[in-house]
Amino acid sequence: MARPTVPPVTLPVLGEDEPFPVRRVYLVGRNYVDHIREMKEGDERDPPFFFQKPTDSVMPPDSVVDYPPETSDFQFEVELVAVIGSEARNVTPEQAPDYVFGYAVGLDLTRRDRQREACKRGVAWEVGKSFDQSAPCGLIAPVSAVGHIVSGEIKIDVNGERRQTGDILHMIWKVPEIIANLSRSYVLKPGDLIYTGTPAGVGAVVPGDRLDASVAGLPPLTITIGEPRHQAA
């Protein structure tokens, strides 16, 4: 039997012809106070915690994302994504910006009912968070083009209606602190994406919905929710 050939996962880069290969996908949980209050979970002073999604869960801009199986509560979370451009080990917050290649708009798509079931059972969130096509990501804007994103509106519209809005400035843990914290537990390498948390306003979507997500200063991200494609054997 022939060995499978797995194509690399890549994302487009603003102003460049060469795509950016994705290595790992890290996400920060509960990083906006209003979202913590909205979800009624966690303490507003908790240190940051992280989880991961599969690399091949990353979907490029303008994708049709299949409505996933085993959920009746499929929700969006708009996030700023920091893209790592060089190897980082145990760096300080002051050093961290030097390791950022660029930024993008991302969506942490969530099977909320499955996540809540996992929380009640005291088990990992993987079933609710780490599934196929669950990490759409927009065009990467290099730091050389847009600078470092430290403030500005973050928002999402569903079918033209505003559903989430906030400001990057209101993150509990800022991007340099997130990178520094992660780099103490993992060796960060070029191609790592770090989704940095979502503000309040998360909600459910259904097939046919169009999601337009944006962060001030970055190329917007648009996806459409498609029909379920998972079928029993």
TrEMBL record:
Residues 25-225 form the Fumarylacetoacetase-like C-terminal domain. Keywords: Hydrolase, Metal-binding, Pyruvate. GO terms for molecular function: acetylpyruvate hydrolase activity; metal ion binding. Pfam families: FAA_hydrolase (PF01557). This is Fumarylpyruvate hydrolase. It comes from Ancylobacter aquaticus. The lineage of its organism: Bacteria, Pseudomonadati, Pseudomonadota, Alphaproteobacteria, Hyphomicrobiales.
